[in-house]
Structures are given as C-alpha cells and as structure tokens.
Amino acid sequence: MSREIWDSGLQNERTRLAWVRTAVMLSTGGLAATGLSVQHGLAPPAAVGFALAALCGGFLLLRTGVRYRRVQEALHGGRPLEGGLDALLAWLGTLSAVAGAVVFVITVR
User: Fold this and answer.
1) Using an 8 Å Cβ cutoff, are 95 and 49 in contact?
2) Mean pLDDT score of the chain, rounded to an integer?
C-alpha cells in the first residue's frame, strides 16, 4: 500500500473556495463600507481603511487561479507549499478593515 501526501478528498478545492470567500468578503465589504463612509461624510481615514481592505480582497480574488495551480503542482510534486504573499494580503486586508471600523466607531457620535 503506497502512502502519498495527498488524497482525492478535494482538499485543494475546499481551500480555494475558502480563499474565494475571504477575498469576496474583503472586497465587497470594503467597497460597501467605503461607499457608506464617503456618502455620510465620515472621517477620511475610515474610508481609506475600508478601500484598502477592498483592494486587498480584489488582488486575492485575482490570484485565486494562480494559487490553485501552484498548490496542485506542489502537492502532486511533493514540494513544500508557499503562500506568503497571499497570507500577507489577507492579513493586510483584515487589519485595514479593522482599522477603518475603529476609526468609524471613534468618530461617530
């Protein structure tokens, strides 16, 4: 019985869907929050934080196909996975959304 590092359980496909959900939530949530911030005249730093979150989400969404192919090749080739840029974009987007929300809460009376 041969033991391989991957099986046919669609792990990479589930991971891709999780990245897509993260990217879509960052981009749509960031865009909506930016629009509301600008429309209601809130502090500019809040809108900038939300816009940066939307931008990070958009880049993550664009990179989904490339990341999926690289992970597939690494899994089937027995090589280690790399995901530093994508993880950095996800963290930056999340922190930007949180910063925008904190500015929003502090400035709204």
Assistant:
1) no
2) 86
